[in-house]
Amino acid sequence: MEKKQFQAESKRLLEMMINSIYTQREIFLRELISNSSDAIDKIYYKALTDDSLVFDKDSYFIKITADKENRILTIRDTGIGMTKEDLENNLGIIAKSGSLAFKKENEAKDGHNIIGQFGVGFYSAFMVADHIAVTSKALGSDTAYKWESDGADGYTIAPAEKDSIGTEIVLSIKANTEDDNYDEYLDEYRLKAIIKKYSDFIRYPIKMDITGKRLKEGSESEFEDYQEEQHVNSMVPIWRKNKSELTPEDYEKFYHEKHYGFDKPLKHIHVSADGAVVYQAILFIPENMPYDYYSKEYEKGLELYANGVLIMNKCADLLPDYFSFVKGMVDSESLSLNISREMLQHDRQLKLIAKNISSKIKGQLQSLLKDEREKYEQFYKSFGRQLKFGVYSDYGTHKELLQDLLMFSSSKEKKLVTLDEYVARMPEDQKYIYYASGESMERIDKLPQTELVTDKGYEILYFTDDIDEFAIKMIMTYKEKEFRSVSSGDLGIDVEDNQNDSESDKKENQDLFDYMNGLLAGKVTSVKASKRLRKHPVCLSTDGDVTIEMEKILNAMPNNPNVKAEKVLEINVNHDVFASLKDAFEKDKEKLNLYTALLYNQALLIEGLPLQDPVEFTNDICKIMV
Q: Which residues, in sequence order, are CB contacts of 495 under 8 Å at separation 6+?
């Protein structure tokens, strides 16, 4: 029998396809099962136009058989089969697909679609087999033919015996090596797991003989093995069922079966889109953050199926980073797959699906916020930080999409409130949305800078997350209201000056502040009388865009950018301490130097900033005690 050479490519090309196009060996089974499913589809299509054909779906199946002893794996289908010419053209010419040609001739009907478009999937079997034999009998043909090959060296085709229409692929599985275990592709439980992973939703039954145990007849303690043919695939995926047929428990079961998480999902989104792009999706908003969510090991993305066949475990392009916590899957027949069917071409359909999915997630979160506040707050405690990162990233590109989903603790509510809720209850005379940054609400409540804003009855948002202030800087304004830190130099609050102060008093005070400013040169930009302080003697405020809290966060980063806020030391002229400052200014400059250093270091401590010289500070404390 004459061995024929592959017409399209050399031995090197076939080796490259086997070793490079597919990243996981187990993919071979997905490819062969998909080809078998396509072969059954072809009979279905012909039955639609040929009255002599009756398509009884129960008569069509795919059977997987493993023979461990002889290292043989068989994939048999009851599909349309192949003639000698089909074998020559489809298996003898690498990268020519009979399914693609059939698809072009027959438009998809009744929701069925042919997915084997590239004609290279079959050759993935050479990753696990050193010999492949394909015996096929075509519909309407009296003769069967066998195609055989050991790989890139070529193939043979000869007449063969086969009673029924369809195709049987026999793989001679490679022997194990020191590095590779090929036995797993003969293990029924491993094969079943691969089928469940990639081909669970093939629309025809995939059968296997599964081994079980039972009591031996007449025995009460001795067991024996037996084999029973079982359907190992689900066939009809949950996302193709009517929503009215499904219960919340069905979605929760699917969530756990797909190992999306160990928690219970807070909400699910079931999408069936039939427009510019056709796809189905089931998305889940988890209850808890995965333990590795902010680690390098975490991979965002949705499972991607093409007509029920798993193409990618994690398609990152379907989810924006700010919604990376969402779990679930997408199934579409509109996607352009590349040669290996593992990867996607980045085309318009994929972008459309991603855009629609993002919109659906935003809508579901808004609905959760509006109708199930407690659940939303539970979600927000887990993933609110990620939404803030989304506002901050890409130079604020997504702020309009995300800002209504943000929540912050409030001085009035002492619980999470939205920006919309804050603005809705602002007094008419309030110019800004006020916020204060700190490690905790308790720390913020004690900040001297909050006194004036609180006395005016204005609400303050508490920023306790290191990303909060950076995100707000990107938003800048919300409903035409600017954000303003309580430490800002200008709070936009009118405060009446003490009319009893004479011009000479004011000049004397300014001379004092100028002297103190000289002592603190390089540490603060100025020293001035405070309009915000009521009970506290001193505090720091800032000029410019960088606040003290932002300085702390930026300088705690590994690559310290050494960013400094423009600090202003504010003195409460109505506090007893100020009288001591004035007295020292007039009588004892050395004492004033001591007081100035102490007040500056106290202001640093209030802000949680490090002291330049803690030993000197403790010595200064001792000086005023003796």
A: 452, 531, 532
Q: What is the rounded CA–CA span in Å between residue 437 and residue 466?
A: 9
The Cα 548–Cα 485 span in angstroms is 10
Mean pLDDT of 403-407: 98
pLDDT digits (tens, 9 = 90+) for 265-322: 999 999 999 888 899 999 999 999 998 999 999 999 999 998 888 888 899 999 999 9
Half-sphere exposure (Cβ direction) of 119: Cα atoms closer than 13 Å: 19
pLDDT at 149 over 60: yes
| Residue that has been written with the tokens 């056709």 in this structure | 278
528 vs 499: CA distance, rounded Å: 18
Q: Give the Cα separation of 329 and 303 in Å (integer).
A: 4
Average pLDDT (17-40) is: 82
| Main-chain dihedrals φ then ψ at residue 543, nearest 5 degrees | -110, 150
Token pair in block for residue 173: 């599985």
Bridge partners of 524? Answer: 521
Q: ∠26-335-270 over CA atoms, to 5°?
A: 90
Strands of 538-543's sheet in order across: 526-529, 566-571, 538-543
Residues in Cβ contact with 257 at an 8 Å cutoff, skipping those fewer than 6 apart:
none
Give the HSE-up count for residue 295: Cα atoms under 13 Å, Cβ half-sphere. Answer: 6
Backbone angles phi, psi at 540, to 5 degrees: -105, 140
Local structure of 73: helix, strand or coil: strand
pTM summary value:
0.80
More confident residue, 57 or 6: 57
**17-21, 57-61, 395-399, 503-507, range with greatest mean pLDDT:** 395-399
The answer to whether 207 and 63 have CB atoms below 8 angstroms apart is yes
The pair of structure tokens assigned to 252 is: 């929760």
Q: 39: closest CA among 138, 145, 144, 160?
A: 138
3-state secondary structure of 29: helix
DSSP H helix total and E strand total for the chain: 19, 22
**Local structure of residue 524 (DSSP, 8 states):** B
Residue 503 has a pLDDT of 59
Does residue 479 sit in helix, strand or coil? coil
In the Cβ-directed half-sphere of 565, how many Cα atoms lie within 13 Å? 24
What span, in angstroms and rounded, lies between the C-alpha atoms of 489 and 286? 42
Compute the average pLDDT of residues 530-552: 92
* Residues whose CB falls within 8 Å of the CB of residue 1, separated by 6 or more in sequence, listed in order: 156, 158
Q: Measured between alpha carbons, how far is 85 from 145 in angstroms, rounded to an integer?
A: 10
Which alpha helices (DSSP H) does 462-520 contain, by range?
468-475, 503-519
Which range (3-7, 239-243, 587-591, 621-625) has the least confidence?
3-7
The string of pLDDT tens digits covering residues 349-359 is 888 999 999 99
Element (H, E) at 231: strand 223-231
